[in-house]
Amino acid sequence: MTGDATPPVSAERRQQDRRRVLRTLLLSGSVLGVALSGYLPLVYSKKKRLRPPGALDEKDFLASCIKCGQCVQVCPVQAIKLADMVDGFGVGTPYIDAREQACDFSCDAVQCILACPTGSLTYQKPGFLPVRPGAALATKPTLLAKEHDPEPTLNLAERIGLARLTRPESCLARQGKGFKGQARGPQFQGELRYMSVDRWKPIKVADHPYDVALCDLCVQVCPIKGAISIETVSAPDGSQCQSPVVHESCVGCGVCEMICPTEPASIEIIPGEGWPA
Amino acid sequence: MSQALKRRFREQILIMFGREPGKPEQISPQAKEIHDLKRVTNKADLQAAKEAHRLHQAHSHKWRNRRWVTLLLANLLFVVSYHFDIQILEGALTASRFIGFHLIDLNSALQVMLAHKHVINNLLIGTGTVLVLWVLLGGRTFCSWVCPYHLLAEFAEKIHLRLVKMKLVTDQPIDRRLRSLFWLLFAVLALATGYTVYEAISPTGIASRALIYGPGLAMLWVLALLAFEIVFSRRAWCRYICPIGLTYGVVGIISPVRVKYTLKDCFHEGDCRKVCLVPHVLDTVIKGRAVDAEVPIGPDCTRCGLCVDACPTGSLKFDVKGLGKLL
Question: How far apart are CA B282 and CA A70, in angstroms?
Answer without folding.
Answer: 40
